[in-house]
Amino acid sequence: MGKGAETRERILEQAVRLASRDGLEGLTIGTLSSELGLSKSGLFAHFGSKDELQLQVLQTAVERFEELVIRPALRAPRGEPRIHALFENWLVWADEEAMPGGCPIVAASVEFDDRPGPQRDFLALAHRRRFDFMAKAARLAIEAGHFRADVDPDQFAFEMDAIVLGHHHTHRMLRDPKAGERARIAFERVLASCRA
Amino acid sequence: MGKGAETRERILEQAVRLASRDGLEGLTIGTLSSELGLSKSGLFAHFGSKDELQLQVLQTAVERFEELVIRPALRAPRGEPRIHALFENWLVWADEEAMPGGCPIVAASVEFDDRPGPQRDFLALAHRRRFDFMAKAARLAIEAGHFRADVDPDQFAFEMDAIVLGHHHTHRMLRDPKAGERARIAFERVLASCRA
DNA sequence: TGACAAATAGTACGATCGTTCGCATTCTTA
DNA sequence: TAAGAATGCGAACGATCGTACTATTTGTCA
């Protein structure tokens, strides 16, 4: 746990920042190293290949998502409160100052959704887990009596994911200041249709 | 209006195909020219710069969207039938064989949403017009008595856009065969909440 | 403190990027 | 059909890409 790991952390933080703006392919070893005051070869040695760098960037982003969105939601009571917390955390996530280009996972997903390889595999798995988490939250809401018993948890996950994507798009591309409000109204409608 | 325009069409068709898979930056003049059996410089001469090539790719994609999604919808009667046609055409659009990487406009939007420049400007305008079209369709549905008078057309546009994005994501990244069904159920719920 | 390992820098490589320029070919049309 | 414009090719440019190798510095610990 020496100096190497510390440097790698510094590299990955900046790398996530760049990847959120320019994508995983737009992220370049030369640019990254010069912005950090490191040599290209010195930085490269930490990862061995660009593929590996990209994978670690994704890994870092996913960990940060779980830390800032998932884990705080888990501290809320099961059922609708937890779902509500998850949703609100997720909206804030899109404005993380450490990711000036928006969610790097969304960016990478669009970039790699048609290119087989380890990046795509990693992203697919991460998304699958995210979906499962949402579906499980819905299931707990059913058990808690907040949601009706005939609510389809997977359908709920789909709609929640869609609203977040719509928010991301409206917020970042259209710069619409009402994006958050729009997303909340839409989600509230979904919630209303699920309630017991 | 001779041979030049014809070649340019051929170039742009293949360019859209590549851009849908690899993004606008991943689209490279060398690859594009060799796949078409043209010389790099000969192809380049048609556009003068990569920026211009990218812009024309976007222009081509938008024109195709209007031809395959918007215009057919306009042939349906105002109100809910037109909205329904718009939605269904849009879902089919994501599977256009000429765009094996999915909607290039979605890809480019994520790619350029934080990079100022003519590409971003073009995309923002295109999206604005798409939103306006959806909102107008909702307004016509209100006038036709299909939708309640207190429906917010802009909110409707947001939710429709979100569902299409969710479908795109679930379909292309997760390869979930139920993506279309999920999107239809979600949209039906939105429609139900709007009906008079 | 000295030896060994870990971390970083330096340099160079082949490939490819977007772009320029001059020349050949092909079209159009007077 | 001859002239001129439109179109396309070939070669080359400087820059940058990811990567490989060899030094040199820095850190760790017996």
Describe the structure.
2 copies of one chain form a homodimer. Chain A has 196 residues and is mostly helical. Chain A is built from 9 helices and no strands. Chain A is elongated, with a radius of gyration of 19 Å. The model of chain A has no long low-confidence stretch (mean pLDDT 97). At the A-B interface, helix 1, helix 6, helix 7, helix 8 and helix 9 of A face helix 1, helix 6, helix 7, helix 8 and helix 9 of B. Chain A binds a DNA duplex (30 and 30 nucleotides) through helix 1 and helix 3.
Features:
DNA-binding; 9 helices; homodimer; mainly alpha; 196 residues
- Tell me about the largest β-sheet of chain A: none
- Mean residue pLDDT of chain A: 97
Q: Rough shape of chain A?
A: elongated
Quaternary structure classification = homodimer
- Low-pLDDT segments, ≥5 res of chain A: none
Structural class of chain A: mainly alpha
Instruction: Give the number of helices of chain A.
Output: 9
